[in-house]
Amino acid sequence: MKENRERILKIRDLNISFKTTGGKVHAVRGVNLDLYKGETIAIVGESGSGKSVTTKAVMGLLANNGSIDSGSIEYHWNDEYTGEPKTVDICQLSEKELQSEIRGRKIAMVFQDPMTSLNPTMTIGKQIMEPMMYHYKKSKQEAYAKALELLELVGITDAKKRMKNYPHQLSGGMRQRIVIAIALSCDPYVLICDEPTTALDVTIQAKILELIQDIQKKKELSVIYITHDLGVVAKVADYVNVMYAGKIVETGTIDEIFYDPRHPYTWGLLSSMPDLDTDDDELYTIPGTPPNLAHEVKGDAFAPRNEFALNIDLREDPPMFKVPDSDSHQVASWLMHPNAPKVDMPEALRKRLDKMKQKGEPNHDGSTTHLGS
Ligand SMILES: Nc1ncnc2c1ncn2[C@@H]1O[C@H](COP(=O)(O)OP(=O)(O)OP(=O)(O)O)[C@@H](O)[C@H]1O
């Protein structure tokens, strides 16, 4: 772990619900999360686990039927002029403050499908320039010059010509580069990438991830990835947060989550991750389905799907247990209680993870060195 890490986001006990015709959906249940300057965290979990809702709350972008019932999302920064440390709770800001202070300017988001974030009727140039003119009151000339710079940064050649193009004239990979350029146009400190490569083919996916990593290094950005894809996580993340039914059930460094996972849900996710040696037919799927969050969850929400569930799981929600000898690894499972029976991860997964370790995966910095070295 790096010394003198500078915390930029601190989420504590965040609870979010949505009013629906089927009742109140408790989508995010007591989430704690930290993000430090220049670092990358990933939030992983099955569909509906609350990944997007959590990060949308960070942007102050919850749907109209949603509300933050309790908790805080502190954003920390140093004042541009005085250098003084400042803190704001994003949950307490008005829409106007969110628009002028946070969204785009301090925290920007890249969504899965570039076509949904680009305006099909507006040229690329205009779409990159507008936020700068709005947020920073840049003149047209300044915004134009910066837009060219940004297009270069995201690896788009012939930038002047591209500025005049409309989104449909570009390939999927190029469009995602444009979306990244727009996200970076107001020099945010945090970039949230929601499944940024899912809609792209595999070779383009790798290029976009590399691009985000390059830019991150150049600009000391902090990045949050939301993804189903543990392969993406392995390539990019420093820290991983595993989410299930609105809760973070395991958190740790990438090595801890990939080589020493403790939560049976994390075991399931890792077992169901495709790799080059696995025939798709052999892939494991976690049995059952996540709970309906419109109903109150009693005990551990994962218990009905957990072959290792204990009696207490049916009655009480487990707290976060610290894994001994680690400052970063925590697990919400009663199996971590000192009096719990000792349960090891499934043998097939152990073998799989050992094989990955031998191969030097996860290879999140793009190098060929083994982790932990
Ligand atoms: N506007 C809404 N109204 C009602 N329920 C909602 C709304 N938005 C999200 N939810 C519910 O909140 C829960 C968490 O959704 P969320 O989109 O955060 O999941 P996710 O982990 O990001 O899934 P995915 O990977 O599919 O995007 C789900 O049960 C979802 O149905």
TrEMBL record:
Region called Disordered, residue ranges: 346-373
InterPro entries: AAA+_ATPase, ABC_Ni/Peptide_Import, ABC_transporter-like_ATP-bd, ABC_transporter-like_CS, Oligopep_ABC_C, P-loop_NTPase
Keyword Ribosomal protein among UniProt keywords: no
Compartments it resides in: Cell membrane
Statement: the UniProt record of this protein carries the keyword Membrane: yes
EC number: 3.6.3.-
Keywords assigned by UniProt, alphabetized: ATP-binding, Cell membrane, Hydrolase, Membrane, Nucleotide-binding, Transport
Family: Belongs to the ABC transporter superfamily.
Domain ABC transporter as annotated: residue spans: 11-270
Membrane-protein topology: Peripheral membrane protein
Entry superkingdom: Bacteria
GO molecular function, one term: ATP binding
Major place of residence: membrane
Source organism of this protein record: Faecalicoccus pleomorphus
Pfam families: ABC_tran, oligo_HPY
GO biological process, one term: peptide transport
Residue stretches of biased makeup (Basic and acidic residues): 346-364
Name of protein: Peptide/nickel transport system ATP-binding protein
Ranges in coiled-coil conformation: none
Entry GO CC: plasma membrane
NCBIfam families per record: oligo_HPY (TIGR01727)
